[in-house]
Design brief:
By secondary structure, the protein is α/β, with parallel strands linked by helices. Helices cover 37% and strands 21% of the residues.
C-alpha cells in the first residue's frame, strides 16, 4: 500500500469515527460496542480516569482512538505551548489546555475535516480560550521552527507511512530543550511477516507499529536525546481474541508468536539545548 493510499484509508476511517460519535455512537477499535466505562477493546478502553472525564465534553471522550494517556504521563507546566499530533476529537488538547493554563496554549493538528469539526465543537462546549485546532498532516506541521515546548500524540504516529518525516518535523517545531512525550504502539522482537500481517488485523487502530529499537533509532536520527520507552500495556493472546474473532484466523496457532510482542508505550525524548544565540541585554552577564 502506498503512502497516499494509507493516508486516504486513515482519513476515511477517522472521518467515520467522528460521524459515529456525533450520531450517538463511539469510535472503538474493536467489534465490541462502547459501554459506560468506554470501549470494550484492550487498546482504547479505560485510558482516562473519572476526574479527567469530568473535565471535558463527553463527545471528546467517545471520539478517542488512542492507546494511552499522554496527558497523564507528560510533564506540562503553566504557560507552555503544547502540540497534539493527530488530535482527533480533542480530548488530549483540552486536558493539556487546563494544565498549561490561560498563559499557555494547546494546539491540535488533524487532517480529517470531520474530526476537526467535532474538536471545535468540543472546544466551544469546554469554553477553552487557549486552544486552537489546525488542519494539516503530521508530516508537514503548519507551525514555525522552535515554537512548541511539548509535543504529545496518542497512537497516531504509528499510522504514518513516513515516520522519519514526522519525527524530523516534531524536532523542527520544538524549542531547544523541548520535550517529545507520546503514547504509541510498538512491537518487541522478531516476528514472522505472515504473523505480523495477521496481527495487524487485530490492532487495526495501530497498524504500522514500529519495533521498539527502530523507534529509538529514528528518534536519535532526528536529533533527539534522552530517549526512553516505557511500556504501559502489553497485549496478550486473550486481548487478541477480542479482535480476531470472525477474521478466520486460528488464534491458538499464532499465540506463541503474538503473546507479549505488541504493547502500548509512552515514548519520551528531548531536543538538545545546543548553541543558542541570545539577543537579550542580560545574556552574557
Amino acid at each position: 500500500m502506498t503512502s497516499l493510499n494509507i493516508k486516504e484509508v486513515v482519513k476515511e476511517k477517522y472521518g467515520q469515527a467522528a460521524q459515529r460519535v456525533t450520531t450517538g455512537g463511539s469510535s472503538c477499535c474493536g467489534s465490541s460496542p462502547a459501554s459506560a466505562g468506554g470501549c470494550g477493546d484492550p487498546i482504547t478502553s479505560n485510558l482516562y480516569d473519572a476526574s479527567q472525564a469530568g473535565q471535558i465534553p463527553e463527545e471528546a471522550m467517545l471520539a478517542s482512538l488512542g492507546c494511552g494517556n499522554p496527558t497523564a504521563l507528560a510533564k506540562l507546566n503553566p504557560g507552555e505551548v503544547v502540540l497534539d499530533l493527530g488530535s482527533g476529537g480533542g480530548i488530549d488538547v483540552l486536558l493539556s489546555a487546563k494544565r498549561v493554563g490561560p498563559t499557555g496554549k494547546a494546539y491540535g493538528l488533524d487532517m480529517t475535516d470531520e474530526m476537526l469539526s467535532l474538536a471545535n465543537e468540543n472546544k466551544r462546549k469546554a469554553g477553552a480560550d487557549n486552544v486552537e485546532f489546525l488542519k494539516g498532516e503530521i508530516e508537514h506541521i503548519p507551525l514555525p521552527d522552535r515554537s512548541v515546548d511539548v509535543i504529545i500524540s496518542n497512537c497516531v504516529i504509528n499510522l504514518s507511512a513516513d515516520k522519519d518525516r514526522v519525527l524530523q518535523e516534531a524536532f523542527r517545531v520544538l524549542k531547544p530543550g523541548g520535550r517529545f512525550a507520546v503514547s504509541d504502539v510498538v512491537t518487541r522482537g522478531e516476528m514472522l511477516p505472515e504473523i505480523r500481517r495477521n496481527v495487524l488485523l487485530w490492532v487495526g487502530c495501530v497498524a504500522g507499529a514500529l519495533e521498539e529499537n527502530d523507534y529509538r533509532e529514528k528518534l536519535a536520527s532526528a536529533g533527539f536525546e534522552q530517549i526512553e520507552l516505557e511500556p504501559t500495556r502489553v497485549y496478550r493472546i486473550e486481548d487478541a481474541r477480542v479482535f480476531l474473532s470472525g477474521q478466520n484466523i486460528d488464534v491458538d496457532a499464532i499465540a506463541p508468536q503474538v503473546d507479549g510482542k505488541f504493547m502500548s508505550a509512552f515514548v519520551r525524548a528531548v531536543k538538545p539545548l545546543g548553541n543558542q544565540s541570545c539577543c537579550a541585554p542580560t545574556c552574557c552577564n
